[in-house]
UniProtKB/TrEMBL annotation:
This is Probable membrane transporter protein. The chain crosses the membrane at residues 7-33, 53-71, 83-102, 108-127, 148-171, 191-209, 216-240, 252-270. GO terms for cellular component: plasma membrane. It comes from Pseudomonas arsenicoxydans. Signal peptide: none annotated. InterPro entries: TM_pro_TauE-like (IPR002781), TSUP/Inactive_protease-like (IPR051598). It is a multi-pass membrane protein. Keywords: Cell membrane, Membrane, Transmembrane, Transmembrane helix.
Amino acid sequence: MSYVLLGFFGCFAGVTTVLFGFGGGFVVVPVLYQILLATHGVEDPIGQSAMHIAIATSTCVMIVNSSISTSKHARAGTLLKDYIWPLAGFIGLGAVIGAITAGFVDGYILRVAFIIYLAITILDCLFRRGFIQQNINAKPERLSVLATIPGGMSIGAIATFLGVGGSVMTVPLLRRCGLNMTQATSMANPLSLPVALAGTATYIVIAQVGKQNFGAWYLGYVDLIAFGVLTIGAIAGIRMTMPWVGTIPDRIHAIVYVSLLAVVALSMMFK
């Protein structure tokens, strides 16, 4: 039954990757966390490390999701290179810092941080001008040095620490630069790749250094079976959703984005 659930939510993660730039973390982390607790219990070593495993597996799934979606968006012509580099490089640097920090933090604290972060993001999107309602007459602005260097490193650190890919920060950032939702969510995918790569590698190393051994089907903190099932579902979801790119009205696209964040936050609060 757990594999069926993982496959279903993997498909849903593929859908959110394409339409909202969520590399899978906002879907994968809560679902896998709950499944690990339900199947192993809180006293089992896997149950005790459930949040770390969920986050590490999420970043691994994001490598596949973000790579495929980036390729498809590039062919669709929705990517704007000026907003990707050098921001992606500083996000990658911050991602290493975030992953190393997360390895020394208790799983409960990670879950609380995940919820708080979501709540702040939702409020920011609702009450700061320029997200729900795009100013169609404004000319898109370039990213500032402040947003690119310290901003990029902060995005990478927080995203990898929580296993969420960074889309929840890059989409509002690009949105406030004057881009429409299709452009902002499309570019969240290549900007999530450095988080996924750096985060996965760091979580594997941290587990090995800490001599964490969860069994044959684990690579560090990464649950390989869950990764495989989630990835198969995600690929199906990505292929199914690509024809919808650019067809959703901008305001509705923004409202659904915020609504999905609220659903995930509630699911983590009432575990």
